User: Fold these one by one.
Assistant:
Number 1:
Amino acid sequence: MQTATAPQTRSVEEVWKKRPLIISGPCSAETEEQVLATATRLAATGKVDVLRSGIWKPRTRPGSFEGIGTKGLPWLQAAKKATGLLTAVEVATAKQVEDALHFDVDILWIGARTTVNPFSVQEVADALKGAKVPVLIKNPINPDLELWIGAVERVAKAGIKDIGLIHRGFSSYGNSEYRNAPMWHLAIEMKRRNPELLIINDPSHICGRRDILQDVAQKAIDLDFDGLIIESHIDPDNAWSDAKQQVTPERLAEMLDSITWRR
Ligand code: PEP
Ligand code: MN
């Protein structure tokens, strides 16, 4: 008789130091089955460290899927138990921080629409006081390094020791090749001014489409970024948010295999 062995979960400290740090998972948690299937297929690639999944979705305009909410957090716990992948969730309010910590989410991130607002960042920072969780901070949607640095300072003042940056590009008016222009020079300048912080790149939200994801990911690695956060879904075309930019776990693995890594 075969006995199932529980997958080994690495410690957050160990994963935080891993280079390249690879985070992947759906833009949004949709159903328990979708979260579990995505996590299982990502873990099977052997190339992913952390499962990302949006639980509360900051949509620019109302009327689209705004996230499954707190009821999705146990799904992430179950996915972690089944696969050993650590979990990461976006938080934008004190209640979301409390709920995410209550359900043992391993890494929190502050989204681009939150980083622009010092009141919101301060609310999140206050809720983080006393927590040991690592926090990743996305650049604000507008190209303002001071806002990005201000968010880092607020979270650091709350006592969070492990802080990282996510470069997800900057919005602008009109059509362009990118959903959010990378403006690489700003990420490079942010890196130069905060050499102690890890910085990862988010090709998914920069590109908004699948076909140029790999080029952007490669550029980030060439620029010595510490890792990547890339959205993946078991059925990308039918994702409830960001359908155009998500890839299957297997396609993600192919992409990661094709990247030339520096270290
Ligand atoms: C996301 O990661 O799904 C997201 C909403 O990203 P951003 O804050 O970069 O728009
Ligand atoms: Mn998304």
Number 2:
Amino acid sequence: MARVNENFAVLEDSYLFSQVAHKVADFSAAHPEKKIIRLGIGDVTLPLAPVVVTAMQKAAAEMGVKETFRGYGPEQGYDFLHEALVKYYAGFGVTLESSEIFISDGAKSDCGNITDIFDDANVILVPDPVYPVYLDTNIMRGRKIVFMEGSPENGFLPMPDPTVKADIIYLCSPNNPTGAAYSKAQLKEWVTYACQNGAVILYDAAYEAFIEDETLPRSIFQIEGAKECAIELCSLSKTAGFTGTRCGYTVVPLRLMRKTKNGKEMSLNKMWLRRQTTKFNGVPYIVQRAAEAVFTPEGQRQCRENLAYYKENARLIGAALQEKGITYYGGTNSPYIWMQCPRQMKSWEFFDFLLEELNIVGTPGSGFGSSGEGWFRLTAFAGRKATEEAVERFRKLL
Ligand code: PLP
């Protein structure tokens, strides 16, 4: 008889967004006249940049012509996109080899799939609060997970604790949900800790394009020594509105080596290549051409216009909270605003208050980990009008 993976039995139901959706549906059914503003979801709302659409159309047309039709592509992505990324990284001082870059259908898949190349006996260090995928994908493997607490004391940027022994470390900067971003000096401490312990950092840079403070790192590879201890996962979802188009990339340095139980030295780059060529058949040609267009000067200009729109939304929300004396993190260098619930309310209590009194939907911080209790995530991805109206409601009622 087939036995199932028992680790799924200990996974908690993915309760956060379904619970939010239920509560909002119940509220709208009871009060159809109320205009609800949604600052809860982490999905983009602006359309793809025109150069991206043109590149997709051109690539689609090529697929309809015998001479330019493409079948299976390289599992790790086409050279043209690797070259575009090599140039992009050079823009912030990082030298990459084409063979260090792996194109994927997004950072969520890579976050989950990368677990394949690590032994299940590893101890996993996960920030709390954080993007829930790191936790759940490792619970699915039955791994031991240790949490590092984010709090106002550390600015929601947990730092290495020499008394904690970890093998795999997840870092997300700028962070979802807190919007907090590590400085180069802070990342250097993590790189030193990882190198000293033989650990590997899985660095999620999905929000790097939101960074406007030029002193902050856009990539962990801006930190000396990171190529010996880190893998970087990134995505075009938020950078270029690819949440529905699906394209991301993972950088596994050629120098990154670790041993098997028996002491055999293995290249993580070669392992990831083997994993991808075995279990993945690549991202569609059309999507990779669209992604290539993102990295052209015009593509960057157009995508940055969209990012500026979201950032202005974040600024408006942040300014209103500041006026009300509400503590918050993020809002700059990030599309997320992580606010403390007023009047010492718990996260879900504040969710209900916001929905019922202001008809605004956000995301309870406790859904991102127990350290998120008493905190709340607002996003900058709504339209300008809706954001301005939400801000007015905050000003009047909070
Ligand atoms: N990493 C973080 C921190 C995210 O917040 C998200 C999406 O919300 C992802 C990864 C997933 O991105 P993708 O759409 O590329 O799968």
